[in-house]
Amino acid sequence: MSGLKCRNCGSTDIEEDNARGDAVCTNCGSVLEDSLIVSEIQFEEVGRGAAAIGQFVSAESTGGATNYGYGKFQVGSGTESREVTIKKAKKEITHLCQQLQLTQHYIDTALNFFKMALARHLTRGRKSTHIYAACVYITCRTEGTSHLLIDISDVQQICSYELGRTYLKLSNALCINIPSVDPCLYIMRFANKLQFGAKTHEVSMTALRIVQRMKKDSLHSGRRPTGLCGAALLIAARMHEFSRTILDIVGIVKIHESTVRKRLIEFADTPSSALTLDEFMSVDLEAEQDPPAFKAARKKDRDRIKDIGEHELSKLQMEIDTHLEKDLKRIQKNTMKRLTGGIADFAGDKDFEDVESANFIEESNLEAIKECLADTPEVVEQRKIVLSGLKPDIESMCRPAPSELLEAEKAKENDVIEDLDLEGLDDEEINNYILTHEEAEYKNNMWNALNAEYLKEMREKEARLAKEREEGKPEKKKRRPRRKAIGPSTSAGEAIEKMLQEKKISSKINYDILRTLTEGSIAGASSVTATEITAAEAMDIKNVPIIVENGPIKQKNSRSKPAYTIGGPAAKVPKLEVGLPVAAEPATPTKKEPVVVENDDLDEFVDDADADADGEAEPEPEREYSSLKDMLNNGEEDDYYGYDEDNY
Amino acid sequence: MESTTDSALRSLLQTTASSKQNPHNTLQPLQPAVTPIVEPKDVQHEVKLQNVVATVSVACELNLQDINFRTRNSEYTPSRFHGVVMRMREPRCTALIFRTGKIICTGARNEAEASLGARKFARILQKLGYPVKFVDFKLQNIVATVDLRFPIRLENLNQMHGQFSSYEPELFPGLIYRMVNPRMVLLIFVNGKIVFTGAKARKDIMECLDKIYPTLLSFRKN
């Protein structure tokens, strides 16, 4: 605060009065600021009692034009539209959370999710109720409460699939990695509703055990958690001698009877269902079952093979067998010949030879077997190396696919055949599709009769339009297609150009003149902005001399070159971001590369240059760009801009 | 191969040294252990195309009512849909024909059928007297399925590949995997069956399968 200077006389002798909330220059007497923001609260006596002095400013407000000047008289008006949106969201989310019996903590989290969505423009084109509900649901999922999507859609009176879509979109765009639903969460909740009285806990514990078992036998994957809970609760209730029908359960878990029945049948197919009650509570079967859908598919396969006809198969098998026999015999003969060779002729030596060869064969066989035994563990290990939980491979994703390259080549060739190729077309068949004159007439009449209403409507519409045109009414505006994302640009000037084409930011700026400023060169543009960026540059001044010390200017250029996409391919950057957060391991090598390159450049120089390079190379291009943008955004408010920054 | 030579040797021993008791006599020829791991190459043969969508333009304005009256296999309900729906027996496919001359041919089982079907539809229009060309034929979407024959842990897959996948059993039983490159969407089910959509060519599907296969293998159950 002491660094503040009077704008009129340059004096630093400024007095602030927190009670009044203003700052006055004691030298010339001009009021530099009123409605100062203070962090302390003071009270004053008024007719009805005590009241806080001044006005509260919420932490979310960005300052700007809030209540400037007239604030004290127009409470609530003049707030930014975003603030209004957030306020509304807060109200709605609070309402929703209260209906779902969620505490303040959840409300805050949900509201933060909403703010994130708002900042990324994800709220556009979606119903606000869906957004609120999705935010609350994301909160529920991340915090692991026992709320289902259907509960929230029930409270909000919206379609749960529509809400699901919104929720998926949000969670995906905000990169929130949401853990999968655990059916165990819902057991307690449903058990409470089933009126088990004092035994609620016991029953739910049993149900929990059943669900755990079901999960082990992968009954749960691809299935709604509620169905699983329903089946488990039904079994558990009956185990504890409560009479509950499927219909009782169905009413509470909100799922169809047949689904619960199906889960029960699937559970009956697992080996754990064969255990007695006591056994089930004490024994944990090691073996895990394949999912029922998988079993069903295999069974289908087997049935199909049976259907093909066993006799056909056996015929085929016989054929194969005879062929194999033949091959075997041939091989045997060959080996015989090879081993015994011509020696077989000498009848006298045969016995001796046989014994010798048998010995030799035995030895070699033993050796081979030993080798095999020695080999096998290695082989097994090799197989085992393959994998547990592969992560996404970002490098392969960024590499252009061979198909893309091929396509690009094809596009270059670009030979166009425009005429219809008649090869393989049967004219007679095609003639069959075409009706005769009488048939066409008949179909025409029928069609006219069927579509009479539509035709009438169309005629009326046309008449109306013709009339409007005669009266000189302007035609209805067609909805403008959505703006395309601004592509990457090579220089700041180009970027401004693109932005100007994209939208006119303010009606108070003469864009033609502005364009002449940027047209000349980037140097010209930067000289214009120089006045604005002095403050920012002042901070950089510290860095500059150090760099000069470290190396010649040439080096600076080379350093700024790898600078992580300066005029940045704006479209590419977020893509990378999407990939990075989860797969930290595969990401690191790709991220390291630029750093390594930089080190190569630098290793002749002093070590601390490294730190400088990081500190300097990044902010510079960004600063230039952002200050230009600021100039365009609030050209007239530049003074406030600098001033505010000093104040905080 | 090993087993055959082994048995050959055994029989050799039996014939030659019958007097001596050979320990190998009791050995059974060993079959090479059946490995349940299917190589991706084999899986590629299992890929079945289910649907191919192609677009083409005949590059002339069409009178849809006229087309509807004069063809046997067409529907036209402008109050519901602004195009003629034309069906065909051989190859079995359906075309949506629009006023601008654009045709969308769906339902073909492979690329050749899609091309043949589109040309047949264009030929029908030609027979009706329109100055038909055959411009910009393009496959827009190929849907294919494959059965990997091993169960997959969807939860774990979803956890590790969260930025590409979404698995919400409350909404849909399969895991939806949005692959970035090639840009396709896969529906992965717990029983090892996979649906590929969004492919522009058959090789996209093969490439995609090659890429996802080791991942899925690493999340197989048991």
From TrEMBL, chain A:
The TFIIB-type domain, residue ranges: 2-33
SUPFAM superfamilies documented for this protein: Cyclin-like, Zinc beta-ribbon
Residue spans of biased composition, Acidic residues class: 598-619, 635-648
Gene Ontology cellular-component terms listed: nucleus; transcription factor TFIIIB complex; transcription preinitiation complex
CDD domains: CYCLIN_TFIIIB90_rpt1, CYCLIN_TFIIIB90_rpt2
GO BP: any one term: transcription preinitiation complex assembly
Biased composition (Basic and acidic residues): 465-474
Keyword Transmembrane: no
Signal peptide stretch: none
Superkingdom of source: Eukaryota
Disordered: annotated segments: 465-495, 584-648
UniProt entry tagged with the keyword Zinc: yes
InterPro entries linked: BRF1_TBP-bd_dom, Cyclin-like_dom, Cyclin-like_sf, TFIIB, TFIIB_cyclin, Znf_TFIIB
Keyword annotations from UniProtKB, A to Z: Activator, Metal-binding, Nucleus, Repeat, Transcription, Transcription regulation, Zinc, Zinc-finger
Primary location: nucleus
Family: Belongs to the TFIIB family.
Designated name of the protein: B-related factor 1
Lineage, broadest ranks: Eukaryota, Metazoa, Ecdysozoa, Arthropoda, Hexapoda
Annotated gene: TF3B
From TrEMBL, chain B:
Keyword annotations: DNA-binding, Nucleus, Repeat, Transcription, Transcription regulation
Pfam families linked: TBP
UniProt keyword DNA-binding, yes or no: yes
A single cellular component GO annotation: nucleus
Molecular function terms, GO-annotated: RNA polymerase II cis-regulatory region sequence-specific DNA binding; RNA polymerase III cis-regulatory region sequence-specific DNA binding; TFIIA-class transcription factor complex binding
Subcellular location: Nucleus
Name of the protein described by the UniProt record: (Mediterranean fruit fly) hypothetical protein
Designated gene of the protein: TRF
